[in-house]
Q: What sequence folds into this?
């Protein structure tokens, strides 16, 4: 927030306030609203609303559909949103939340993105215990064998999933690694439904992981966050705690990236 000089009294600019309110209203009604609906919802005088809508439409901040007679968010606002999205670097946004999650759980927390069929770790906050996860920023691991990787795979559409894994041999690293494509496809469907993934010693023996997705302004899974815990420290209730803490952190990171959950979101 801008900090104005103390000797300047802040007075909201009515026209600007109404323009922003109109943008927010049409953001909630993505199918568009007619002029009559806009007037009913805002309660503004017809003449001032007409002037505002026409001005915003002329500058392409609103779009008009002659068939439905409805106004929608225009291309200029889409371009502005893209500029915001491209200007956000996820690591500096995520780091405070990774540290907080590490402090709450007392275990190593990592951030990763998907590249092909591998997850790349782009940030990590180590546990303060002597026994730590042996990983590093920049490491690549097979997505099918990690919790964080499976969450990222779950963020793909079915078509994207099949395209990326077509002809790929799923290597079995431990007895619990999913190495069958049809089984992995079912695992991914389950992850989508429940909103988190697990890794029960699927890549590293003696380590369990939980992971949840991070969404961007378009609602697409753009990264994931995970916690890794040695079996020696896995206790009753740790799964519920891990999912709750990671979900809280991922939700706040997603919000800072511009994601807004719809009414159907859990």
A:
């Amino acid at each position: 927030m801008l900090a104005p000089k103390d000797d300047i009294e802040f007075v909201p600019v009515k026209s600007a306030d109404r323009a922003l309110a109109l943008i927010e209203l049409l953001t909630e009604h993505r199918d568009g609203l007619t002029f009559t609906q806009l007037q009913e919802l805002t309660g503004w005088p017809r003449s001032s609303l007409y002037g505002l809508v026409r001005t915003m439409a002329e500058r392409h901040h609103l779009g008009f559909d002659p068939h439905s007679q409805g106004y929608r968010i225009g291309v200029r606002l889409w371009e502005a949103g893209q500029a915001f999205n491209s200007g956000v670097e996820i690591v500096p946004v995520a780091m405070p939340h990774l540290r907080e999650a590490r402090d709450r759980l007392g275990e190593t927390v990592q951030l990763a993105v998907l590249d092909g069929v591998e997850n790349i770790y782009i940030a990590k906050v180590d546990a303060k215990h002597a026994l730590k996860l042996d990983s590093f920023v920049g490491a690549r691991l097979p997505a099918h064998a990690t919790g964080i990787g499976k969450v990222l795979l779950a963020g793909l559409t079915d078509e994207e999933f099949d395209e990326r894994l077509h002809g790929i041999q799923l290597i079995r690293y431990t007895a619990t690694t999913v190495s069958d494509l049809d089984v992995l496809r079912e695992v991914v469907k389950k992850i989508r439904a429940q909103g988190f993934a697990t890794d029960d010693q699927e890549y590293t023996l003696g380590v369990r992981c939980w992971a949840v997705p991070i969404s961007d302004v378009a609602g697409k899974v753009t990264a994931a966050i995970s916690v890794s815990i040695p079996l020696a420290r896995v206790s009753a209730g740790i799964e519920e705690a891990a999912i709750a803490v990671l979900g809280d952190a991922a939700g706040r990171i997603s919000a800072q990236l511009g994601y807004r959950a719809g009414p159907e979101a859990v």
Q: What stands out?
A: DSSP finds nine helices and nine strands in the chain. The domain at 14-79 is CATH 1.10.10.10 (Arc Repressor Mutant, subunit A). The chain has two domains: 14-79, 86-256.
